[in-house]
Amino acid sequence: MSPTRVLVLNSGSSSVKYQLLDMSDASRLAVGLVERIGEETSRLKHTPMGGGAREWTGAIADHEAALKAMSEELAKDGLGLDSPELAAIGHRVVHGGKFFTEPTVIDDAVLAEIERLIPVAPLHNPANLTGIRTAQALRPDLPQVAVFDTAFHTTMPESAARYAIDVRTADEYRIRRYGFHGTSHAYVSRATAELLGRSPEEVNVIVLHLGNGASASAVRGGRCVDTSMGLTPLEGLVMGTRSGDMDPAVIFHLMRVGGMSTDEIDTLLNKKSGLIGLCGDNDMREIRRRIDEGDEQARLAFEIYIHRLKKYIGAYYAVLGRVDAVAFTAGVGENASAVREAAVAGLEGLGLTVDGELNAVRSDEPRLISPESARVAVAVVPTDEELEIATQTYALVNGSRNLT
Q1: Burial letters for 113-143: b for 16+ Cβ neighbours within 10 Å, e otherwise?
Q2: How confident is the model over 89-143, as pLDDT tens digits?
Q3: In angstroms, rounded to a whole number, what is the distance separating the alpha carbons of residues 198 and 161?
Q4: SS3 of 333, please?
Q5: Torsion-angle region of 395 (φ positive above 0: left; ψ -120 to 50: alpha; else: beta)
Q6: 29, 130, 232, 296: which sits with the fewest CB atoms below 10 Å from its CB?
Q7: What span, in angstroms and rounded, lies between the C-alpha atoms of 293 and 296?
Q8: Which of 77, 141, 149, 283 is catalytic?
Q9: How many Å apart are CA 120 and CA 403, to the nearest integer?
């Protein structure tokens, strides 16, 4: 019997998230997180199937040490990296550019291309590369697969992917709209079709991935035709700490009038804007608590957030022409009923409405929150990016592209 386990790695600059899944039944065998890598207070939390979480705190010098510590924890449960049941390691890679349109077995050429894309993903691709190279050193005999956040969005037509700037300049510097959160948008759009009892090819879905980072996508028949993030994850919706859409001339104004450097502006727009810039909080739960207490600054931040979200729903409705469902996902989308209600309020003319009682229900299961009579389904679909990465990885190494 061929091996069926896939280890999924999501390597950040100072952390590694991991999950081990058995693709014979899509079950999780273990999940874990190593954080604060490079510090004296590094922390590893490991949870095998069935519970019994273990935590360890101490110095973990680098990603190699982090993955070795992860391997040791897995081995304690009989799930070590040397197991013959391990089929592959799937890596989340944030930026795959224009040409990586599907999961890809990693070789030297793939690594070189991921490295060439660092200028458009300076915070993410270097960390992803470190995780890949470390995993390769631990298991050089095992297929390593890159699953790109941008891949799902490569089906966008040029009319959606191109910025209206000089074509030669854009091509020389790879300036175009790539989109992100692609594994989440792929999973949720497919799961939404399943919730409706239809095949993805039959369904048009607006997916709203609302976490600290947030993005929207228009998915026609299982293929992305537009998405809100662009060259980087800064474009689009109002996010926890990112501004989203903004007049580019603001940057020139801050440089000329404010005397700010490009690094200062980069920090402002990526880390000090969005909800935290508007009201000092990027936790939607805290913002709603403040609103309930009469905090007008928090209320305005919420209204700006919803205004932008509603604009994208309307825009993608126009792009798709026909919408079968709007799906909310990720931390805010799955848990903040007030956001879901406000996002579709006033859009009854488009067939969008939510049932108050259904919307108030908390559940980890995909569910409809619109009335049975609604023309457009409104759904809450918990995302599962790790399962999506494992599914794509396993399908690739087994020679099958049937991901449904």
Answers
A1: ebeebeebbeebbebbbbbbbbbbebbeebb
A2: 999 998 998 889 999 999 999 999 999 988 877 878 888 898 899 899 889 999 9
A3: 28
A4: helix
A5: alpha
A6: 296
A7: 9
A8: 149
A9: 29
Active site residue 355: no
Comparison of pLDDT for 257 and 40, the residue scoring more: 257
Residues 6+ positions from 162 with CB-CB distance below 8 Å:
170, 176, 177
In terms of C-beta density within 10 A (0-12 exposed, 13-18 middle, 19 or more buried), how is residue 194 classed?
Answer: middle
Give Cα 344 distance to the centre of its chain: 22
Q: Would you tell me how many other CB atoms lie within 10 Å of the CB of residue 97?
A: 20
Q: What is the mean pLDDT of the chain?
A: 93
Return the structure tokens found at 286.
Answer: 């805290």
Core vs surface per residue 31-52: b (16+ CB within 10 A) or e: bbbbbebeeeebbbebbbeeee
Instruction: Please give the order of strands across the beta sheet that includes 5-11.
Output: 54-58, 42-48, 27-35, 15-22, 5-11, 86-93, 144-148, 104-105
**Greatest extent of the chain over all pairs of C-alpha atoms, in Å:** 67
Q: Two tokens at 374?
A: 């609604």
* The pLDDT of residue 72 is above 60: yes
pTM of model > 0.85: yes
| C-alpha–C-alpha distance, residues 13 and 34, integer Å | 11
How are beta strands 27-35 and 42-48 bridged, if at all? antiparallel
Name the strand (E) or helix (H) holding 390: helix 385-397
Kindly provide the residue ranges of all beta strands, DSSP E only, lying in 36-136, ordered along the sequence. 42-48, 54-58, 86-93, 104-105
Identity of residue 342: A
What's the pLDDT tens digit per position in 245-300?
999 999 999 999 999 999 999 999 999 999 999 999 999 999 999 999 999 999 99
Q: How far is CA 210 from CA 233, 327, 333, in A?
A: 13, 10, 5
Contact 153, 178 (CB under 8 A): yes
pLDDT tens across 138-150, in order? 899 999 999 999 9
pLDDT at 190 over 80: yes
Residue type, 87: A
Q: Name the residue among 190, 176, 180 with its Cα closest to residue 211.
A: 180
- Asked whether 281 and 298 are in contact (CB, 8 A), the reply is yes
Cα separation of 8 and 385, whole Å? Answer: 10
